[in-house]
Amino acid sequence: MPEHARIIEVIKPLMLAAARIAMKHYGNLENIHYKEDNSPLTEADLEVDQLIHEKLSNEFPEIALITEEKSETHGTLPESAPFFLIDPIDGTKEFINKRDEFTVNIGLVENNQPVLGAVCAPAKSVLYIGSKNEGAFEFQCDLDNDRLGPSKQLVPIKPDNNALKVVASRSHLCQNTQKFIDANKVESLVNAGSSLKFCLLAAGTADLYPRYGPTMEWDTAAGHAVLSAAGGHVEDLQGNPLRYGKKNLTNGVFIAYTPGGKFKLP
Questions:
Q1: Is the Cβ–Cβ distance between 176 and 219 less than 8 Å?
Q2: Is there a domain that residue 266 lies in?
């Protein structure tokens, strides 16, 4: 198994290249397709997917790779070996509507837990990288000059449990999520798309992210890893860590929160 530091050094320029592809298509969406579940698919999804799949397969052939846009990879889950989870454009609806909250996600799972993740928000020019061995960091992206700015370590702020800051899905704010919000002492609610929500917790700008709507493992692995590397938690309603490597790759309900966070379930 390669060291996390080596994987990160491969992922950094890869994310810059993926971000440039995404921005090339941003606002230029003549070719939008729809998958069987009626979710949108753009040329950016396909190009970024191909780039990441080829690079990671060549650099780390010993690590299995599962990507949203290649259904043939969905049935190749290893029993216990590590694997990558890729979402080339997370928040495609945000991307199509030219909201800047879409992300590119690469997560590495070991022993059913995400241990390394990279989340790039190209339209925000920011990259988040977290590893259980290396910590969690934020980088500014200079896409014009193909480089990253200096890193900033992510340290969540201890929450005020009497005035919680909650972030929730922009597209999936369901009734159960509202019940969770109503059951807790929430000072502010911010709606955001994609895996960026995990990174807002890791960066200390939010305390809680309740997710009652459906997600796939490639939606969450990278952001989960970033938050975990910053000391945060992602748990199911029984308080168990959210597990990965499930046969259908579908997540159940989960609550993501920062260290020291306390909440009530409705």
A1: no
A2: no
The pLDDT of residue 239 is: 96
- Domain of 182? 164-257
Packed helices 4-25 and 43-59: angle between N→C axes, nearest 10 degrees = 160
- Residue 199: predicted pLDDT: 96
CA distances from 190 to 1, 64, 115, 164, 186 (A): 39, 36, 27, 11, 11
| Count: domains in the chain | 2
Is residue 158 assigned to a domain?
no
Residue 264 lies in a domain: no
pLDDT score for 78? 66
> If the chain, 266 residues long, is cut into consecutive pieces of 10 residues, what is the mean pLDDT of each piece?
90 98 84 73 91 97 93 77 94 86 96 96 97 94 94 92 90 82 93 90 95 93 98 97 93 96 94
- CA atoms within a 13 Å half-sphere pointing along the CA-CB vector of 97: 10
Q: Is the pTM of this model over 0.85?
A: yes
Whether residue 46 is found in the same domain as residue 102: yes
Residues 133 and 216 in one domain: no
Last residue of a domain, one of 123, 153, 183: 153
161-193 burial, b if ≥16 CB within 10 A, otherwise e?
A: eeebbbbbbbeeeeeebeebbeebebeebeebb
Residue 135 DSSP class: E
